[in-house]
Design a protein that fits this description.
By secondary structure, this protein is an alpha/beta fold. About 40% of the residues lie in helices and about 15% in strands. The chain has two domains: about 170 residues, Alpha-Beta Complex (Aspartate Aminotransferase, domain 1), CATH 3.90.1150; about 260 residues, 3-Layer(aba) Sandwich (Aspartate Aminotransferase, domain 2), CATH 3.40.640.10. The structure holds pyridoxal-5'-phosphate.
């Protein structure tokens, strides 16, 4: 199809995810190369969002990964992991257990992130049924967190506007404060005492467990760095505190690492950096660097042992979970990570990216720059007191101005206001300094213009 035919056919036939269904001039990307993508008019963009936090390797490994896939498909195109299995899923499970911290040794495969979250919940429930604690049916999650939107996963998601049309949620989940250090201080401003903030958050978490009924809570679920709300980094001691609370009240602790895992923060399993082992981990997106769709749940030996010992059946299955094609891609992805030093690249360049992005604070519209690894958000504010934009202003900025201006600047980034107004980036993990510099330079132009457009500070103030 030509560019115009694609636009027409998309309008008539393609239902877009999380989008208005009539988009004039839909961005249709048809080709990728390294960290760049190209649209059907031949325009080039630096993909500073890795296709929604997925394309860890960027776009130039298709031939190599394709050769591995071709070999697998001509050997065995498909078999399930229901009662039978096949070499790629077994080898991938073993490889993930090898790179995961502690005794996160058991792996269940899915086709994506929401399915991984729901499979983790069912594993958690089966665990408590097997140890004779059937009353544990509740969970604690955090405000504004996104854990997927299939009906089960939607229970954990803390974004009211996504939940309300489909209420009531099937799982009883209490939502508590997230780790917003920019707005979580006692007066609603920046946190100045990190340890006190941690203590306040953990006290709230404990209150929520007690209120729900300590013998009824099965799971605490959180992301190592929360995406929705804009890369909310946990304060010092927070995860150790969650671990202690889960242990104290007999609940399981889960890290949803659909974004944070698979190298985005420089580790396969990012929660391991906190000096603890969680009981359950969900992975997806970067597990295959998006060369195929796949998700996974990692579980500790102790979570699965009672199910094995009682001879119980895990009453859950997904036909394509652990598909040989996807498992082959994931294995190849892990091999390339090791060979090309992808985790090392993220670790080495994180301080550099942090420093470059912090220069954007010179722009009056940028109130905060936060994140970790290759996962960052700029919170956009109205004035030097960090006043929030109201709804009409957010519409004008995030939905009116930024999408077109970002496109014009040749950079793909995410303007989001599920929490406060942020612009987010998550570059491919193979990006070098030159790519990161290029991204920051383009963001500087766009955000400088955004400040002028929104009349923040004096016109074009701070634009170097
Ligand atoms: C933290 C987290 N969990 C779960 C999901 C759901 O994953 P999927 O869209 O693959 O179902 C997402 C998706 O963005 C996510 O960011």
């Amino acid at each position: 199809m030509t560019h115009d035919e694609l636009q027409q056919a998309a309008q008539e036939h393609l239902l877009l995810h999380f989008s208005k269904q009539s988009i004039d001039d839909l961005l249709v990307l048809e080709r990728g190369e390294g960290p760049y993508v190209f649209d059907t008019k031949g325009n080039k963009y630096v993909d500073a969002l890795s296709s929604l936090f997925c394309s860890q390797l960027g776009y130039s490994y298709g031939e190599e990964i394709g050769a591995a896939v071709a070999s697998q498909l001509s050997t065995l195109a498909f078999n399930t992991n229901w009662g039978t299995a096949h070499p790629p899923s077994i080898e991938l499970a073993a490889k993930l257990a090898e790179v995961a911290p502690g005794d996160l040794n058991r792996v269940f495969f899915t086709s994506g992130g929401s399915e991984a979250v729901e499979a983790a919940w069912k594993l958690c429930r089966e665990h408590f049924l097997a140890i004779g604690q059937p009353r544990r049916k509740k969970a604690i999650a955090r405000h504004i967190a996104y854990h997927g939107v299939t009906l089960g996963a939607l229970s954990f998601t803390g974004v009211p506007k996504f939940k309300e049309p489909f209420a009531p949620a099937p799982i009883d989940v209490t939502h508590v404060s997230n780790t917003n250090m920019f707005r979580g201080g006692p007066d609603g401003g920046r946190v100045t005492d990190e340890d006190a903030f941690t203590a306040t958050l953990l006290a709230e978490m404990e209150d929520a467990i007690v209120a729900a009924g300590p013998d009824e809570v099965a799971l605490i679920i959180a992301e190592p760095v929360q995406n929705a709300g804009g890369c909310l980094v946990a304060p010092r001691g927070y995860w150790k505190g969650l671990r202690a609370l889960a242990d104290k009240y007999g609940a399981l602790l889960m890290a949803d690492e659909v974004i944070a895992g698979c190298g985005r923060l420089g580790e396969w399993v990012a929660s391991g950096r906190e000096g603890i082992t969680v009981d359950l981990v969900s992975l997806a997106k970067g597990l295959t660097s998006a060369y195929a769709p796949m998700g996974a749940v990692l579980a500790r030996d102790g979570v699965v042992a009672p199910i094995v010992e009682t001879g119980a059946v895990f009453r859950h299955g997904i036909t394509f979970g652990g598909h040989p094609l996807a498992a082959t891609v994931a294995l190849k992805n892990m091999e390339i990570f090791e060979r090309d030093g992808v985790l090392e690249n993220v670790r080495e360049l994180t301080p550099y990216l942090a420093e470059r992005l912090s220069t954007l604070l010179e722009l009056p519209i940028v109130g905060d720059v936060r994140g970790d690894g290759f996962f960052w958000a700029m919170e956009l504010v109205k004035d030097e007191d960090d006043t929030r934009f109201d709804q009409a202003e957010r519409d004008k900025l995030l939905r009116g101005f930024l999408p077109g201006r970002l496109r014009e600047a040749g950079v793909i980034a995410r303007a989001d206001d599920r929490g406060d107004a942020v612009l987010q980036i998550a570059p491919p993990l193979i990006s070098d300094k030159a790519v990161l510099d290029d991204i920051v330079a383009r963001l500087r132009d766009v955000l400088g213009d955004a400040g002028v457009h929104m009349d923040v500070g004096s016109a074009a103030a701070g634009v170097a």
